[in-house]
């Protein structure tokens, strides 16, 4: 591996330390991703390593999701933003020269991922450089023995120096004073921290060096797995596969029949069966999503391992396949309906919102699976699934989950529903602009405005606590900045609320005398 690549990777490792060590997440991640992309492109350009133009499409999700990491604060949305940046950047690395990812199957992605991991685990940052200039000036033996003798010499010199420094310090007070001053400036008590930071800087540098090395040496590979011969030859007989598909389809259709009766032909059917809306909706939507997801895995597995030796068998299999997907889509609609009933009874939460969006994209993915089966292009499923994942993640970002939850739960108060202020305080700063807008609205009841004001005071308390900490530019977050500006609009009205600090929480007392705790909680159902 070239020395210039190692130096670049080491510099990026030091930049990583500057951006992230003891810093809250903020704009730093987007900056680091941009620097890595720029550095990698410049390195390969200087070495005349070409890139496939189709890979420019991968820059769209990389840039979008890296930017959203300092725009959205919702924990799950943030996690998926970080994950998708790493996934799409990994695909860019694996196919930098070939640009073959549009033709990848799932097994191609897995194989190339192992190659990437292998490039990293070779510890390229510590291997001898192979620059032609180095080889011209030094022989191979000299190159291999450049670093380790220096390291061994330094390790052996440290105890020797320590002995003589101790002797000279005892012999001369001025020398001792200078040594103590030097130790104080070096802040020697933080030596374990410095060692730890040095180690993880080297690990980050090694990771990036492995990424560069993989893009330069492995990404030109244009071999696709399973094109000429399937990875797993079909081994399950058509009869067995047909029985599995047919029995599962009959089970799903019987379940769908019940769903039609209770959900699509009148609300009274639920109460006649002895259940209230809330009781019926509270149970099952998670299980139905799991059943839909497992059925997708079953379909893909049978499509891979089931034998179809004649056109008639292919038609029968496709008929059962499409029928099962259709029943799964109806089950997803039923699950969607259950969730709507649950939210009507208990309000909106993070998990319920994620589930809503996930069901929509799972339905889109299942529809795409039917199309794939009809046109007989099973290899494209991997990229279709990736697009569905990107669509799901982009939807969460564009929806602004916490603002959506605040808006919906506040809207329920016009129907006579209570406002759960504790849940509002559990949301992130993404929800503050929505809460301020509602608080200033004239369409709310006094009780609702009273509770929203208390929630805003809780956000103000948290903001004051954050201001007391050392703020760094690396931790800049657009959501925090917007929340601060919005809270300034209602600062005068919020001054009418009283704040009471208790042992484990903060309690806000409204002008009407109601007490609201700031110990917000997340809803996981």
In short:
With 525 residues, the chain is mainly α.
Report what the structure shows.
The protein is mainly alpha-helical and 525 residues long. The chain has 3 domains: 1-231, no CATH class; 238-399, no CATH class; 403-517, no CATH class. The protein has 23 helices and 3 strands. It has helices spanning 3-20, 28-46, 56-68, 75-94, 106-121, 132-137, 140-144, 147-171, 173-186, 191-217, 238-264, 268-272, 277-282, 285-305, 311-346, 350-375, 381-399, 401-411, 421-426, 432-439, 446-468, 478-489, 491-494; strands spanning 498-501, 506-509, 515-517. Strands 1-2-3 form a 3-stranded antiparallel sheet, with helices on one face. Helix 1 (3-20) crosses helix 10 (191-217), helix 4 (75-94) packs across helix 10 (191-217) and helix 15 runs antiparallel to helix 16 (350-375). It is flat and about 95 Å long. It starts with a helix and ends in an 8-residue tail after the last strand. The model is unreliable at 132-144 (pLDDT under 50).
Features:
single chain, 525 residues, mainly alpha, 3 domains, three-stranded antiparallel β-sheet
Chain-wise SSE layout:
Blueprint: H1 3-20, H2 28-46, H3 56-68, H4 75-94, H5 106-121, H6 132-137, H7 140-144, H8 147-171, H9 173-186, H10 191-217, H11 238-264, H12 268-272, H13 277-282, H14 285-305, H15 311-346, H16 350-375, H17 381-399, H18 401-411, H19 421-426, H20 432-439, H21 446-468, H22 478-489, H23 491-494, E1 498-501, E2 506-509, E3 515-517
Antiparallel strand pairs: 1-2, 2-3
């Amino acid at each position: 591996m070239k020395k210039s690549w190692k130096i670049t990777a080491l510099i990026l490792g030091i930049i990583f330390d500057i951006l992230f060590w003891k810093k809250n997440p903020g704009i730093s991640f987007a900056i680091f991703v941009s620097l890595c992309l720029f550095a990698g492109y410049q390195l390969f350009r200087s070495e005349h390593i070409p890139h496939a133009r189709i890979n420019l499409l991968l820059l769209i999700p990389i840039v979008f999701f890296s930017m959203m990491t300092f725009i959205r604060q919702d924990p799950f949305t943030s996690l998926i933003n970080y994950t998708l940046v790493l996934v799409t950047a990994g695909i860019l690395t694996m196919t930098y020269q070939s640009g073959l990812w549009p033709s990848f199957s799932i097994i191609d992605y897995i194989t190339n991922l192992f190659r990437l991991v292998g490039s990293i685990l070779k510890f390229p940052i510590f291997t001898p450089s192979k620059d032609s200039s180095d080889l011209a000036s030094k022989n191979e033996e000299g190159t291999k023995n450049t670093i380790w003798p220096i390291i061994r010499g330094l390790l052996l010199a440290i105890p020797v120096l320590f002995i003589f420094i101790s002797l000279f310090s005892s012999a001369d007070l001025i020398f001792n004073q200078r040594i103590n001053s030097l130790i104080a400036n070096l802040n020697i008590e933080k030596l374990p921290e410095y060692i730890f930071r040095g180690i993880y800087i080297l690990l980050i540098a090694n990771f990036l060096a492995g990424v560069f090395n993989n893009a330069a040496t492995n990404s030109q590979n244009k071999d696709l797995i399973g094109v000429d011969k399937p990875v797993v030859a079909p081994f399950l007989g058509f009869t067995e596969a047909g029985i599995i598909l047919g029995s599962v389809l009959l089970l799903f259709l019987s379940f769908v029949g019940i769903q039609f009766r209770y959900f699509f032909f009148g609300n009274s059917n639920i109460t006649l069966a002895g259940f209230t809306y809330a009781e019926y909706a509270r149970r099952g939507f998670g299980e139905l999503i799991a059943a839909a997801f497992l059925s997708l895995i079953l379909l893909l597995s049978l499509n891979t391992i089931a034998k179809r030796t004649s056109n008639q068998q292919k038609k029968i299999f496709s008929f059962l396949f499409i029928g099962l997907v259709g029943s799964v889509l109806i089950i997803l609609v039923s699950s969607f309906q259950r969730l709507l009933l649950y939210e009507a009874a208990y309000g909106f939460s993070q998990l319920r919102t994620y589930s809503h969006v996930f069901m929509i994209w799972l339905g889109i993915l299942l529809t795409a699976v039917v199309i794939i089966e009809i046109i007989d292009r099973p290899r494209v499923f991997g990229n279709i699934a990736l697009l569905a994942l990107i669509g799901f993640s982009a939807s969460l970002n564009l929806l602004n989950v916490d603002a959506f939850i605040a808006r919906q739960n506040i809207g329920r108060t016009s129907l006579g529903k209570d406002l759960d202020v504790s849940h509002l305080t559990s949301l992130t700063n993404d929800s503050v602009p929505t809460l301020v807008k509602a608080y200033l609205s004239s369409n709310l009841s006094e009780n609702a405005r009273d509770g929203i004001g208390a929630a805003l005071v809780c956000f103000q308390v948290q903001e004051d606590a954050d201001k007391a900490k050392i703020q760094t530019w690396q931790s800049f977050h657009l959501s925090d900045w917007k929340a601060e500006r919005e809270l300034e609009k209602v600062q005068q009205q919020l001054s009418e609320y009283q704040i009471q600090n208790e042992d484990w929480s903060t309690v806000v007392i409204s002008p009407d005398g109601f007490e609201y705790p700031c110990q917000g909680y997340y809803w996981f159902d």
